[in-house]
TrEMBL record:
GO terms for molecular function: glutamate-tRNA ligase activity. Its main location: cytoplasm. The gene is gltX. Zn(2+) binds at residues 109, 111, 136, 138. Residues 6-323 form the Glutamyl/glutaminyl-tRNA synthetase class Ib catalytic domain. The keyword NAD does not apply. This is Glutamate--tRNA ligase. The keyword Heme does not apply. Binds 1 zinc ion per subunit. Monomer.
Length: 491
């Protein structure tokens, strides 16, 4: 049953290219919101001026639009909790930090980096937890004044409770964190800049987020946020603590977490290779969730109708490029031919196309498209598969030429040409019978007989169905290419 009160958020930092793990998180939040007829909030966490960039911000918006993951509140849409960029909300964080200090929920910490490191090293050597030891937790006014007289600066540190924190994770069940594992933590830098540990929960509180679905790598920060939420509720800043669900890691090669540095992690790679958004989202949804035990291929509306966060698996999900490509190929075949032809258009133009624009023959493209559709894994493959139709002569792949032109290729091509001259060029079956007859004349089966013809006409040993390709290219051009191949062999 739908719950229209559900509010989720997707809050990336605009750094670098979008990562497929990030997209998976956005997808699960979006599907959860849409399934429940709830609200999807898109928020930008851009408080790190050294790493954030407008270029990355623009890429994020463009990527979400390409994927069709729309949002109800956020950049370009607005909403009751604007602004939705953290860099424009600094006054809010300053005000909340002051309330936390005044209420005794936070305190100034004057410890230097060197002092902290020395005490951590000593704790490790003694076998104790190495988190912050509470040195500045209960300073008197005189001690604070003395530190300030020394010229020390202070960060703001949140005071964690002295009892365990237990919560029910929507993916992992009940979890408990003991105080020694969750020490007091910084929320404001010495220069007054708020940290993620403050701004993220404050924004979730003020934007009334009900469910936080995020990566497993953030699980260790959840007890901190729950403690902060309790303080914010007591201060009248927050209404309730959201439910948390931590999504499984996406693993790459060697059982390592897929990182931004892994080539297959970049969303841009899949766009550039010509993945359909439906194919990519279908695959990414399977990284930690399943549609059913016996169905891997489904549409995005079908996913939304079925998605439940309770069905997400806590175990790490392995990213499998071959499986992603296979699922994308299925989605390409699910398109009607007109939609497939339109989807291929970018790869039939510069800079992908290696033919002159005036040589592009739309009638030939529309004729070959149905045959191409059944063989594509990604749309970018179309360029090399149809270039023989639009180039003055084929681009010979030398290994393909060497592989096909074994034995006595000139004799075979000469016989094939003779048979093809008399064939019916409006009937691929007639063209096939001509090459089959040429092969029989030289003691070859069709597979061996058609290889030299295919390379002579298309430049490659593999590609679209040969006899349909010959029909579409036409008798005059096809025979001229066989003649050119014979001349190349003679030369």
């Amino acid at each position: 049953m739908a719950n229209a009160n559900i509010r989720v958020r997707f809050c990336p930092s605009p750094t670098g290219n979008p990562h497929v793990g990030l997209v998976r998180t956005a997808l699960f939040n979006w599907a959860f919101a849409r399934h429940n007829e709830g609200t999807m909030v898109f928020r930008i966490e851009d408080t790190d001026a050294a790493r954030d960039s407008e270029e990355s911000y623009d890429q994020l918006l463009d990527s979400l639009k390409w994927l069709g993951l729309d949002w109800d509140e956020g950049p370009e849409v607005g909403g009751p909790h604007a602004p939705y960029r953290q860099s424009q909300r600094m006054d809010i964080y300053k005000d909340v930090a002051e309330k936390l200090l005044a209420g005794g929920y936070a305190y100034p910490c004057y410890c230097t980096t060197e002092e902290l490191d020395a005490r951590r090293d000593a704790a490790r050597a003694a076998g104790r937890p190495s988190g912050y030891d509470g040195q500045c937790r209960d300073l008197t006014a005189e001690q604070k004044a003395a530190y300030e007289t020394e010229g020390r600066t202070s960060i703001v540190r949140f005071r964690m409770p002295d009892e365990p924190i237990t919560f029910t994770d929507l993916v992992r069940g009940e979890l408990t964190f003991t105080p020694d594992n969750v020490p007091d933590y910084g929320i404001v830098r010495a220069n007054g800049a708020p940290l993620y540990t403050l701004v993220n929960p404050v924004d979730d509180a003020l934007m009334e987020i009900t469910h936080v679905l995020r990566g497993e790598d953030l699980l260790s920060s959840t007890p901190r946020q729950i403690a902060l939420y309790k303080a914010l509720i007591e201060l009248g800043v927050a209404k309730e603590i959201p439910a948390f669900g931590h999504l499984p890691y996406v693993m790459g090669e060697g059982n390592k977490k897929l990182s931004k540095r892994d080539p297959e992690a970049s969303l841009n790679l899949y766009r550039e290779r010509g993945f359909l958004r439906e194919g990519l989202l279908n695959y990414l949804s399977l990284l930690g969730w399943s549609f059913s035990a016996d169905q891997d291929i489904f549409t995005i509306p079908e996913m939304v109708a079925k998605f439940d966060i309770a069905d997400v698996n806590a175990n790490p999900a392995r990213f499998d490029l071959k499986k992603a490509e296979s699922i994308n190929a299925d989605h390409i075949r699910m398109l009607d031919v007109k939609a497939f032809a339109e989807a291929c258009e970018p790869w039939l133009q510069a800079p992908h196309a290696n033919w002159a624009p005036e040589d592009f023959d739309r009638a030939a493209w529309e004729a070959i498209a149905p045959y191409a559709q059944t063989r594509m894994t990604v749309l970018s493959e179309i360029t090399a598969n149809v270039d023989f139709l639009f180039l003055p002569e084929p681009v010979f792949d030398q290994p393909s030429w060497d592989k096909a032109m074994k034995g006595e290729p000139a004799a075979l091509l000469t016989t094939a040409r003779e048979k093809l001259v008399d064939a019916d060029w409006s009937d691929p079956e007639s063209l096939k019978n001509a090459v089959l007859a040429a092969g029989e004349a030289h003691g070859l089966k069709l597979g061996k007989a058609q290889a030299p013809v295919r390379v002579a006409v298309t430049g490659r040993t593999v590609g679209l169905p040969l006899f349909e390709s010959l029909e579409i290219l036409g008798k005059e051009k096809s025979l001229a290419r066989i003649d050119a191949a014979l001349a190349k062999l003679a030369g």
